[in-house]
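Inputs:
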Amino acid sequence: MKTEQPGLFPKTPTGIDGLDEITFGGIPKGRPTLICGSAGCGKSLFGLQFLERGITRYNEPGVLISFEESKKDIAQNVQSLGINTEELIASNKLRIDYVRVDRAEIEETGEYDLEGIFIRLNYAIESIGAKRVVLDTIESLFGGIENTAILRAEIRRLFQWIKDKGITAIVTGERGEKTLTRQGLEEYVSDCVILLDFRVVNQIATRRLRIVKYRGSTHGTNEYPFLIDEQGISVLPITSLKLNHTVSTEIVSTGIPALDKHFQKGGIPRGSSLLLTGSAGTAKTILASFFAASSCQRGEATLYFSFEESADQLVRNMKSVGLDLMPFVKSGKLLIHSSRPSLQGLELHLLMLHKLIDQHNPRTVIIDPISSLLNVGIISEVSDMLVRLIDTLKIKGINAFFTSLTHLTGGVEKDRTVDAVSSLADVWIRVENEMQDKHRLRGLQIIKVRGMGHPIDLQKFKITDHGVQFVGRKKKSASRKR
Amino acid sequence: MKVNNDNMSKEIFELRLYIAGQTPKSITALNNITRYCKEHLEGKYTIEIIDLLKTPQLAEGDQIFAIPTLVRKVPEPIRKIIGDLSNEERVLVGLNIRPVKSAD
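Outputs:
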């Protein structure tokens, strides 16, 4: 992670996965940052996570001034995300002060100011030596205080006071009709504004984050997908597409010795991405499983994303072709993650991939089939995502194996995933079934291998209960490419 | 001594005035509430002054956000009036005190 750049405002890392990368180090240190978005977009959680990460990762105590929810409600809300506010409060690292303004019991007459809030905030900060503050959401005061002229002046004064004190603050605001926040808080917080968005596209909910403004700092200007799961918020940074990954000269097996022989160097280069295309029932998953098994046999952690079969199903089905994945699953070398593509939005899948890759640290990743993701996204998004994914895997030097279900139309594979991935893939293998004299013949064709010779004609193979066997090898000598 | 039937109940008004230092607004508020009480609640009230600069920890309990704030602790329910209490009528309505009619 990059930290602050020279000559720029110092920054405070939020500790929110991905966000600090987009902002090149975090939010402005010692200044308020506005987080705005509509109801349910995750503002409050964002704030609380900023505090929790500050405490647990950077040893910076924090104060939450809540204008909407009581201490008890907050504790309950974030419990499922693994944040134990009571524990943090007990250890004097966190203070929550619930400022409740009930118009029904309040009468206003004459001059006043909001010094009470300043005193409470100051007291909370001083009592634990807080470095971080969250105000969630100060706009609620507009519902409780008649004199908005005083309120506005005092909010302005409060933000200035926070700056003078050098506290890094997050101020949340509800999204307005035409403005970023209902009460125009963006006028007062001028350094950094982050917008959270929650929308439903094709019946799939997606969360996005955009940095609207960051004075004096470079930042990504895209909309970044983000995820809220049991570990809180994580933002998916779109990795810069620089082609500067180191290339390995090591060769790894495809998992099928007979197939390895077809490659000039006896296998495929480590860290390459392999695309396997074919119509239904062409043994894509079987080939993918053999690849996974060979990775496990080398003692390397392997991650198998299955979008069509559950882990149990996959293990059972592979047993029928003489491949026992169970020992690898038991030893923890093989992690099979299966989910329905339509269960989550596209970026959630991508985030999930990233998270599991971070946690499991695999040397091989299999996505079976990558074409399933087409159902949940728009084509341009899908290809963007695949580019990012392949890029990430390449940077990490992970062997990638993607299967893709294609439909043959007039002998040519017209498929959007193929279009998107085939040019990026280092190795492209096509499998097919052919009817001959009432027999189904399986064929495999190596379409491309970067930097290596290979036969270009169709190799016949069959699936037996001992695995994959190549049959009737054709004249291979004449057809070497390169 | 002024007599007012509605305020004749034995109930004592327990008032708290929250201030933050001797600011003009706070002094005005204190002068105002003392005057109203002498006039309408003679002998039936207590005013406790809490300076939050000295005891900031007390702000949370009564949910104080504005300064000055007058809190009617008793009789219940709790009522709050924020501001320098310059509008007598609003203060009396806010505290639910039936004003003593000046001799007419």
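Remarks. Residues 1-5 of chain B have pLDDT under 50 and may be disordered. Chain B has two helices and four strands.
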